[in-house]
Amino acid sequence: MKHYVMSDIHGMGGLFDEVMSFLNEQDEYQLIFLGDACDRGPDGYRIMKSLLENPNVIYLKGNHEDLFVKAAHEVKAQALEENTSIQKLIKQYGSIYEFMMLAGWDMRLYLQNGGQPTFEAWIENGASMSFVNEIAKLPIYHCLNDRIDMFHAGSTSYHLETMNEQEMLWDREHFDCKWLYGEGDRILIHGHTPVKYIYDWITEETPRIWKPLRYSENKICMDTAAFRTETIGLYCVEDDSFIMFTPHDNLPTF
After folding, report:
1. Strands 214-216 and 187-190, how do they pair?
2. I need a surface site. Which of 82, 150, 178, 192 has the fewest CB within 10 A?
């Protein structure tokens, strides 16, 4: 069985379907998805649901899944306070956008981070809190073969030792840090920050193309800014190689 890693598809349903079509042609596979299935693109809710239901997928939480959960709990609490359903509460505001603009902090933050299409789809499909609870319970960390560490944002080894969830979902301070000092055969694979910005951060002279997702000796970033580039990558652990999916003739450049 081959193991594949992907991250940050952000609601791009066409790309997701192409990736899954490829994986379903394999004899056996396991996909480790590093979070941020939702928001920005139109199909985030469908992608989250598909990942949850697929027995071949290990689905890790990203910061956008975390934002979705917090926003959903906020709207549920307000509906309970006003003794109404979530759907009726939204109608009082005229539209989901208007509600998200005027609601509490978690909802406004979610709107600012592209959450409207995912939230609309969740509402249209019944606003299930059991679905929200499944997303909330997603793991934040997976280790493969005792040497490949995977979580959404990447972070310092200290945050891994303490299992600091917020740092492991949001951190952007770790790019020039070595991964697990003294254990050079370990690899960290993460998403969250498009490769372009990682290269800018560590100021390395390197060709500005999407394909080299390995930005240091033992760290790999899987975020290809799919919503903007229409490009997503799979990393195959056994082959130590990247498979890129894009409708473009050439991979997008920086």
Report:
1. unpaired
2. 82
**If 0-12 CB within 10 Å is exposed, 13-18 middle and 19+ buried, where does residue 60 land?**
buried
Work out the mean pLDDT of the chain and round it to a whole number. Answer: 90
- For residue 124, give every residue at least 6 positions away whose Cβ sits within 8 Å of its Cβ, in sequence order, or none: none
Output DSSP code: residue 34.
-
pLDDT at position 219 over 80:
yes
User: For the CA atoms of 30, 237, 148, 153, what is the dihedral angle to 10 degrees?
Assistant: -80
Section 164-185 average pLDDT = 84
**pLDDT score of 254:** 41
Burial class (CB in 10 A: 0-12, 13-18, 19+), 21: exposed
3 state DSSP class of 29: strand
Mean pLDDT of 167-191: 86
pLDDT value at position 209?
47
Tell me the H-state helices in 113-225: 116-124, 129-136, 157-162, 165-170, 195-202
15 pLDDT more than 90: yes
